[in-house]
Sequence to fold (73 residues):
Amino acid sequence: MAKTADILENFGQRVRSLRTAKGWSQEDFAHECQLDRTYMGGIERGERNVALRNIERIANALGISIAELMKGL
Fold:
């Protein structure tokens, strides 16, 4: 189970880093992704196992490819 938690935490940290680099609040970013703010918070804390469609939404909102979003995980 620890392996799963690691990738979720790493993904959440990556999303948070990219979001803050753009200067977006969590609420503004969630709106851009068309996701709920509390769901986005769960992603960033590594508490959510994100669906592929939502990964695509996050990447699109950031203006990057899914591959770039996953870089370093």
In short: The helical segments are 2-21, 26-33, 37-44, 52-62, 66-70. The mean pLDDT is 94. Residues 2-21 form the longest helix (20 residues).
